[in-house]
Design brief:
single chain, about 210 residues, alpha/beta, 6-stranded parallel β-sheet, 8 helices, about 50% helix, disordered C terminus
């Protein structure tokens, strides 16, 4: 969209292939896995790759990721950049990207936890890339054909070819899936069901999303 083009121009990444991560750093989003994925993405896509991080996390929270990116030969501001933007500006930056990144720690599974950023990525038509150890996310990406795993066991040239080949189809699938599965109407229906179950049976310790 127009806002995305403006953001790309502002960031001087008009000719780059942009992988985007949005949200806080650390905790449930392990820096090690993120850095592994970024490294593989950059190797697969080549010199035109760029990693954009939208986060309100401070430099202390950023440091583990920054150190590993630097150790992998990725230079801040040249190969990757962080921005702290207001909620109203997030959509414009999402539209400036080509791919999105989602990794979770082992204590979280996508069957019980999918962050809001996942729905935002899909709504913006950003295919989701993840880590080989996030099997739950991989299953969802495969089911809806909305993303791929950054697998170090695959030759980077082949990985790059696959990403380029499948991007447009996965982008269409992302938008369709966001509308069908993650729209506001869908969330309202799901949460209404949860609250009804909790009201009927106060003894339930946990409730999963349908």
């Amino acid at each position: 969209g127009a806002h995305g083009k403006i953001r790309r121009r502002e960031l001087r990444i008009e000719n780059r292939t942009v992988l985007l991560y949005s949200g806080t750093l650390g905790g449930r989003y392990p820096a090690g896995r993120m850095a592994e994925c970024v490294k593989l993405f950059c190797q697969a896509i080549g010199p035109e790759s760029f990693f954009l991080v939208l986060t309100s996390s401070d430099e202390k929270r950023l440091e583990p990721l920054a150190m590993q990116l630097e150790a992998n030969g990725l230079c801040r501001d040249k190969d990757w950049k962080t921005l702290d933007v207001g909620a109203g500006d997030v959509a414009g930056y999402l539209n400036a990207a080509d791919w999105s990144l989602l990794v979770l720690d082992d204590f979280l599974t996508s069957e019980t936890f999918l962050p809001i950023k996942f729905a935002e990525y899909l709504a913006a038509g950003l295919p989701v890339l993840t880590h080989p150890q996030n099997s739950g996310i991989i299953d969802i990406l495969g089911k809806y054909r909305i993303g791929a795993v950054l697998d170090g066991a695959v030759a980077t040239a082949v990985l790059g070819e696959n990403l380029r080949r499948d991007k447009d189809l996965m982008r269409e699938n992302c938008i369709a899936t966001a509308h069908a599965e993650f729209s506001l109407k869908q969330f309202i229906e799901r949460y209404s069901k949860i609250y009804a179950e909790l009201t009927e049976d106060g003894d339930n310790d946990s409730v999963g999303l349908a």
